[in-house]
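User: Some background: our group keeps a shared notebook of sequences we're curious about, and every so often someone picks one and asks for a predicted structure to add to the entry. Today it's my turn. The entry only has the sequence so far, pasted here. Could you supply the structure so I can complete it?
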Amino acid sequence: MAAKPKAVVLLSGGMDSTVTAAIANQNYSLALLHASYGQRTERRERRAFDEVADFDGARERLVVRFDAFAQIGGSALTDRQVAVPESGEALAPHAGIPITYVPFRNAHFLSAAVSWAEVIGATAIFIGVVAEDSSGYPDCRPEYYRAFQALIREGTRPETHIVIETPVIAMRKSEIIQRGADLGAPLDRTWSCYQFDDEACGSCDSCRLRLRAFAEAGLRDPIAYRPRVAP
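Assistant: Of course. Here's the predicted structure to add to the notebook entry:
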């Protein structure tokens, strides 16, 4: 049997990236990349990454640090002086770009993924970005990835051929959950909360999106939430 081609999968340990890894695992050998960038739940996300990677049986793993984000600030995820919003207003249509946006973050992550892919001979990079049913981040749009694909062609060796795959970009969160359930993805090992690393807050944008999506999918969210929240 011919060996599977190799793909680098950006795995935060969140729901979207975990399902993306499960999708990639159908046709590729996985090389999982995790980015630590000074986010509030950095340790909990790293634990989720390790647990999902163990579940997927991935032998190739890389954890990359981006310490500059904490120094740059400008986001509630990396600046402790900026509160994580809990009102849910950021999820309303035309609410604008929320304060949880980390400026140009995904370009840094993709750059590391391309560098690693070129070294290990991977032919694809998978990233679990979601365009419509997300918090409105500008680096989650399809045109962003088309532009980055062109950059890869111009900035790598002539013989290098790496394709960016965004398999969940057009899905709703509830559809991602259903796809993950169908594939047997370990959703119970994922972490989405922006604020805490023991029990999820249930109030931040990411928790609200997750809770709403599980409800729409008709499934129970398997992670623990703080008592004041009824998932």
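Suggested note for the entry: The CA atoms of residues 131 and 170 lie 6 Å apart. The chain has a mean pLDDT of 93.
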